Amino acid sequence: MLLLLPGLALAQAQNPAQTVTRDGVTLTQAQEQRAEAIGDQLRCLVCQNESIEGSSATLAKQLRIIIRQHVVAGDSDKSIMDYMVHRYGIFVLLKPPFSRLTLLLYATPILALILGFLVAWLARRHKTPPPPPLDDAEQDRLERLLKS
């Protein structure tokens, strides 16, 4: 077994283009592409509006390392995603799956807008009527008050 180790190292040294070291983890090109694809689907929990692959935050780097370690260990994409969701919650997914909760989140602004229009329409519809016109006695009294 020990005799195979130098041969393996020599084979790696002769073809360095097949391996990539990123964030301290060495992987093959295929593994790196797979890790990047997974990272592109996960939200940076610090930046919140970009993937962990595009983020320079320390937490994003740590998550990239975890993903690459799982990829090197041979875990499936689904198991890596499940691990991240279990550990950080559904918020870690840039595109969460459709569920009743996400339906509520997407529908709330629309329902609020409809409710606002309904309230405005009802308020406009139920205006108080204008006051009745002044009779002659009230009109004379008003004119006297304004002249004095």
Write the SSE topology.
Layout: H1 4-14, E1 19-22, E2 25-28, H2 29-39, H3 58-73, H4 77-88, H5 100-125, H6 136-147
The residue ranges in which pLDDT falls below 50 over 5 or more consecutive positions are none
SSE string, helices as H and strands as E: HEEHHHHH
Quickly count the domains: 2
Count of extended strands: 2
- The end-to-end distance, rounded to whole angstroms, is 117 Å
CATH topology of the largest domain: the name is Helicase, Ruva Protein, domain 3
**CATH architecture annotation name of the largest domain:** Orthogonal Bundle
Q: State the CATH superfamily name of the largest domain.
A: Cytochrome C biogenesis protein
- Fraction in beta strands: 5-15%
Sheet/helix structural class: mainly alpha
Q: Would you kindly provide a written description of the structure presented here, covering whatever features stand out?
A:
Helices cover 59% and strands 5% of the residues. Helix 2 packs across helix 3. The mean pLDDT is 85. The relative contact order is 0.08. The protein has a two-stranded antiparallel sheet with strand order 1-2. The chain has helices spanning 4-14, 29-39, 58-73, 77-88, 100-125, 136-147, and strands at residues 19-22, 25-28. It is rod-shaped, with a radius of gyration of 34 Å. With 148 residues, the protein is mainly alpha-helical. The chain has six helices and two strands. A hairpin with a 2-residue loop joins strand 1 and strand 2 (25-28). The protein folds into two domains: 15-92, Helicase, Ruva Protein, domain 3 (Orthogonal Bundle); 100-147.
